[in-house]
Design a protein that fits this description.
Elements lengths: L1 E11 L4 H11 L3 E10 L2 E11 L3 H9 L7 E6 L8 E11 L4 H11 L3 E11 L6 E12 L4 H15 L1 E7 L1
Antiparallel strand pairs: 1-3, 1-4, 2-3, 5-7, 5-8, 6-7
Helix pairs in contact: 3-4
Amino acid sequence: MKTSLVLTLIGPDRPGLVNAVSRCASECGANWLESRMAHLAGQFAGVVRLEVDAGQVDKLETALQALEGQGLRIAVARGAAGPAASVRKVGLDLVGHDRPGIVRDISAVLARHGVSIESLETACESASMSGEPLFRARAELAVPATLELGPVRLDLEALANELMVDLDFADA
């Protein structure tokens, strides 16, 4: 029987961190299924999903904990098994002048409608003409199959007007 493990990783960035994690996984017979990793403010941060035989979970967790001696903090959570809810994928793209609270405001609207954020990528960059900070976000959302998109779209468009950002909300 296989067990899914979700790892969160953070530590000062340096070459070899991914190799150290993947070596532990490989030595325990784990399969590396998914990951998202980034260099943020001098830190390496990542999320990884592994699948491993149930009998190897403790050995893998022990091996991963040993990496903390190399400055890499790792949290391990066992994945939940169960039937997936019936959802449809919807994309959300946003761009506008940067200001605190954009992610909070957008995520509050989504949560109020029961929409989950499956992935979110954000960046702050200089606008091409003015050089002012420009905030970009791209999200993949899981919308319950029974939820009408109209009210969600209306709330997001109202918020986009208030925030003065461009927002695109469409089936993925």
